[in-house]
Amino acid sequence: MPFTLLEKASFTYNQAIRQATFSPDGRYVIAAFDARTVKICGQDNSGKWVEKGSLAHSTTTRSAAFSPDSRYVVTASKEAKIWALDDNDSWVEKASFFTHEDDIKSATFSSDGRRVLTITFYGKTVKILSQDDNGSWMEKASFTYKKTKCHSAAFSPDGRHVMTATYEKTAKIWEEDDSGRWVEKVSLDHSGCLNSAAFSPDGRYIVTAYNGGASIWVNNDDWKGATKTDLYHHPTTIDLATFSPDNRHVVTISRDNMVTIWRKDDNGIWEKKGFCAHDAWIKSAIFSPNSRHMVTASNDKTAKFLSQNNHGSWIEKASFTHNGWVRSAVFRPDSRCVVTSSNDKTTKIWGKNSHGKWSQKASFTHDGLAISAVFSPNGRYVVAVSHNNTTNIFKIKIFKLLNSCNSKGPSPSKRRKFTD
């Protein structure tokens, strides 16, 4: 079915926008940019998107994220600030932690929204902030790296563990003990420089990518007895490895511009099930929410779409083409559409046509390079960011061709009907 993108709001700022995302409940959009403020937009009673708040910092903001229940926001600059939504639909500062020597690269909530994890831009400090029963926020742990750089830190899906990964070939898992102290649980050592580490959605596995290979670690005895399976040894660097939402697949991205997909069989053995090659650097490879599809984004001006067949193998089904680097490609929550953003200044939506083939459904041209675009949780809106310092919010309209028969015969006449 054809789509059209109806622009519902456009917010232009004086500085470049780093990111814009929807809240988990879809009611708000948060935008972080190269300035000392973060903006939050939301819908008023008439459905119009308007600015709801300006969250101020003393230095340039680096990131902003909602809590899983959409009631809190954490923003990061040299300080981490936590904001809460009050009864008047306003965002109120609840806590501020100005304890980092350099800028905070990212700040994220745990799955229950009671903890926040921060990591600095140069990877020297990781901190855990926690909310007490009285609602106040306190610093609970600080991990300092003097001789190496910690490039990533993440909560486990249940929020009980934290994993940190450094370029010194090591990923560490931390756990809160009975006294409230966060202590090292286990160290996962590698033969090469570690580039990424990620939990599986069910928390039972970790996949790591390093110079020369990728490995999967199984949670035994609450990670104290973690066992390792090497997916493969690769002649070049593996930059990224992540799980599918159903925990049964892993995708790796290597610097030879190759994406490889692995699947766990019924005996727990990981097998190579598909691959696709690009002609330039691959920015991302993302599974669909239903774990049946994958989309990549590359500097070769394409996003490639792969699907799993009935035999479990992954086959390239389509190549979405732009006239510039593809900067991002993500799925709609129902897995039925993909939105891409490109240096050719366009945001495009792709979906299946009447013949079952994937094709372009809608396109919007920006005044600057298109940086990113994501769907709202209900799939009805898209928020797009461009290099002209603008955030656009679109509503997706779908029109169907409906048949109607007159009283004189079976010949149908066609008319368009718009639906949300």
Textual characterization of the structure:
By secondary structure, the chain is mostly beta strands. The chain has a single domain, classed as Methylamine Dehydrogenase, Chain H (7 Propeller). Helix content is 0%, strand content 62%. It has a six-stranded antiparallel sheet, with no helix packed on it. Strands 1, 32, 33, 34 and 35 form a five-stranded antiparallel sheet that branches. β30 (346-352) and β31 (358-365) form a beta hairpin. The protein is globular and about 55 Å long.
Shape: globular
CATH first level = Mainly Beta
Helix share bin: under 10%
Poorly predicted regions are: 401-420
The number of strands is: 35
**Percent of residues in beta strands?**
over 45%
Number of structural domains = 1
CATH superfamily: YVTN repeat-like/Quinoprotein amine dehydrogenase
Backbone CA Rg: 23 Å
Which strands sit side by side, in order, in the main sheet?
18-19-20-21-22-23
Q: Give the structural class.
A: mainly beta
Oligomeric form: single chain
Report the CATH architecture: 7 Propeller
Q: Count helical runs.
A: 0
- The first-to-last residue Cα distance is 12 Å
* Main sheet summary: 6 strands, antiparallel
Q: What is the name of the CATH topology?
A: Methylamine Dehydrogenase, Chain H
Average pLDDT rating:
90
